[in-house]
Amino acid sequence: MSVTIKDIARKLNISISTVSYALNGGPRPVPSDVRDRVLATALEMNYRPNALARSMATGRTDTLAVVPPRGAHPMLLSPYLLTVLNGIMEAAETLQQDILLHSLRIPTTEKPADAAPPVETAPLLHPNSTNSLLGGKVDGVLLIAPGAESPLPEQMASHSVPCVVFSADGPSGTVTITTDNTIATRQAMEHLYSLGHRQIAHVAGKPGLRDAEQRRNAYLSFVQEMGLPCPPEWLVVGDFAYARSREVAHALLASSNRPTAVLAGNDESGLGIIDTARELGLRIPEDLSVIAFDLLPPPFQRRTLTSIRQPIHEMAVEAVQLLTQWARSGILPGPAQRVYPTSLVEQGTTTTPNDA
Fold first, then answer.
1. If you count Cβ atoms within 10 Å of the first and of the last residue's Cβ in the chain, which end, N or C, has fewer?
2. Whole-number mean pLDDT of the chain?
3. Nearest-angstrom CA–CA distance, 39 and 25
């Protein structure tokens, strides 16, 4: 039979509440000598806390749900997500929070090529998946870059579930942690422009994601403002993925109308572009300048790349801190939107164009 706090209290001849305060660090203070006796006795009696009982008593589970972007596969091989998750786990350990990585999706089924499209689209998440976020299993939810079509931010807000939205726009009743993609894109484009580049292509990120859409729009605004050429083949979608970016980069760089510089949607795309360029016999940066976003830290970044740094780790740490504070206090922390600054870090993949 498992040992309870009642057994410890009986052995030490003190109150159950005193034992509870000593084991849980509050909410009321306990003299240090009493606390030491309680901890020593708990260890001697092989006491194991009952998480369910503690949850019922406190109204908290000390568990946070983390929901990765839809379609982020293979999820645990994405350098960006690994960087975010590393920051989340570091903060969770410090704050003594458990992390539930939420990935239950509706399975897709193959359909004949000539099958008629469905009248209604399937929900993005299985109902059981959404219910588990709302059913008290977790104290709060951290949504990583949810797409514009995701119902989760609104659902969490409407049910008053503490929710931090990471790298996306959240509704009223949530907290968002982002960077300003318009400023970040302008930093990258002004860098290329200052080097003399006037033929700049963009391998954009996954459509429907805030970062991808805002960077694409900022790129178009800059080339229009500066009167730069932008043929349709210079604006392609790389999905924030290494393999897909390699595919689109091959057509872009093998063309006779090749740009002198490429703005990549993220570092993973930038590395794919560089590898394709080198396979085609192009020198980096002499024949092609490449700049990207994120500046992933080692070991997630395999090679150096000139990039716009997002403080991803710091952003992830604050996301967990805010969510934990909110869950414990029941008060939505302000301000509702935290915008982190970005910075340009030159790492040898940009230079003046050959014809400058």
1. N
2. 87
3. 11
